[in-house]
Amino acid sequence: MFAVVRTGGKQYRVAAGDKIVVEKIDGAAGDSVTLGDILLAGEGSDLKPTDGLTVAAEIIAQAKGDKVIVFKKRRRHNYRRKNGHRQNHTILKIVAIGGEEKKKATRAKKADAAPAGDDAAAATA
Prior knowledge:
four-stranded antiparallel beta sheet; 18% helix
């Protein structure tokens, strides 16, 4: 199964076991991350609905990209500026595709727990 995910303003086609380099995501090496912005999913030539679909990934490393040299010059004005830049990025390993979001379940649990707490408070008063 494959999915097209959007993170850091870019789109990536991923499958289970793939390693991708994305814009910096908070977390340490070994942490798990869920990517919820799924644009497309499918298996082979069959497409599947993306409602509630997530991609589970593990952070392998936080790293820096290659240095990019920024050189500015204006002819005949003795103006030269040289700067370097290294972009931070995160290396992810895709663990699984197809997990359902658990936001709906947590909301339901909170709704069920609130009336029980109110009944207990009313009984003691």
